[in-house]
Each structure stands twice: as structure tokens, then as C-alpha cells.
Design brief:
Blueprint lengths: L4 E12 L2 E14 L5 E15 L4 E10 L4 E5 L3 E4 L3 E5 L2 E5 L4 E12 L2 E14 L5 E16 L2 E11 L4 E12 L2 E9 L1
């Protein structure tokens, strides 16, 4: 009580504002409010972490939620973020910046949207609210070891930006496009 920490273990579960966190162990950190009482400032989750709402979910091994900054950091060898039409995976870490509506996947990150795949060392996805609720990815930025598979085209580059609605990818630096036996190289490509 003096340290303002609450620990729940064994199928621990916490819910707030339509978001549920499940894990083997949850640690909730509180601070005193100026007018009295306490406020939840941080939640740490460890062991088979699952975070979900009606529109999206994230799974990983451990997570830290800074509730004051609205930043979630999920770690694990296989972190998976899913919406109704998109999946983003990473083998190191995923950050979700709620106020900025942005997710950053680190370590062999892969984003799949309606049959199109983009992978890189780091992927940054920006989200927009959908009509009728929920969210969807509208832009993916890729950094280092970028690979895009779209139909029979295979693209590689150092950097990339994929605009989901238009389906246009812009690649820069060390670009290689392969279609069958045909190979194109250059500094910039748009496909």
C-alpha cells in the first residue's frame, strides 16, 4: 500500500475504457492525486500478454502501459497486432502510441493488408478512424531491409512508404524490382 502498487497474478485481467489486458501477472502503479485519492499511472504485464478491444488486439510476452502518456510497449519473440483487415508482426517489440494513432514494430517486422506484404527491420504504421468505429492502417513507413511482395513483383530498398488506400509504394535508396527474370535497379521507384 505504501508503494502504491497492486499485483494480480494467475490469469490476471484488467479493463478500462473498452480495452482489456490479460497476462499471468499484472502490476498496477498508482500515484496520489492532488485532491485526494489515487490515479493509475502505469500497468506492467508479464507472461502471455493479450490486449484487446472490439476493433483490435495485440499479443506478446510482456508489456508496459504508460497511461498518462498513452503509450503501450509490448515485447516478445512474436508480437502480433491485428485489426479487421491488417496484421503487423515483429520479433522484438511493438509500440502503440494511442494519441498519435501510430504503431512501431521492431525486429523483422511484417505488415499484411489485403494480400499485400511489406517487411523491414522497422515498420511504422499510421491509423485513421473508420466510419462506424474502429481504426485502419492508412500509411506504412519502412526502414532498413525493406521488402514488398505485390502480385508477381518483388521489391527491395533501404526505405519505403506504402499508402494503403491508393496501393502505391514509394521506395528509395538501393532499389531493386524483380518480376520473373526482369530486374530493375535505381535510387527511387514508385509502384
Amino acid at each position: 500500500k505504501d508503494k502504491k502498487i497492486l499485483i494480480a497474478s494467475g490469469n490476471a485481467k484488467a479493463s478500462r475504457d473498452g480495452v482489456t489486458v490479460e497476462a499471468h501477472v499484472l502490476r498496477a502503479y498508482y500515484r496520489k492525486k492532488a485532491g485526494g485519492g489515487t490515479a493509475l499511472t502505469r500497468l506492467d504485464a508479464s507472461g502471455s500478454v493479450r490486449i484487446y478491444s472490439n476493433e483490435e488486439s495485440i499479443i506478446g510476452q510482456s508489456a508496459v502501459f504508460d497511461l498518462e502518456k498513452a503509450i503501450f510497449i509490448i515485447n516478445g519473440k512474436k508480437v502480433i497486432y491485428q485489426t479487421s483487415n491488417s496484421t503487423i508482426t515483429a520479433n522484438q517489440q511493438m509500440e502503440y502510441w494511442e494519441r498519435q494513432r501510430m504503431a512501431i514494430a521492431r525486429g523483422d517486422a511484417v505488415a499484411v493488408n489485403e494480400g499485400k506484404t511489406i517487411s523491414a527491420d522497422v515498420l511504422k504504421a499510421l491509423f485513421a478512424k473508420k466510419k462506424g468505429g474502429g481504426s485502419e492502417v492508412y500509411l506504412v513507413e519502412a526502414f532498413d531491409n525493406v521488402f514488398i511482395a505485390s502480385g508477381q513483383d518483388k521489391l527491395r530498398a533501404d526505405r519505403g512508404i506504402y499508402r494503403v488506400k491508393s496501393g502505391i509504394a514509394t521506395l528509395t535508396r538501393n532499389v531493386t524490382i524483380t518480376r520473373g527474370k526482369n530486374i530493375l535497379t535505381g535510387d527511387k521507384a514508385k509502384i
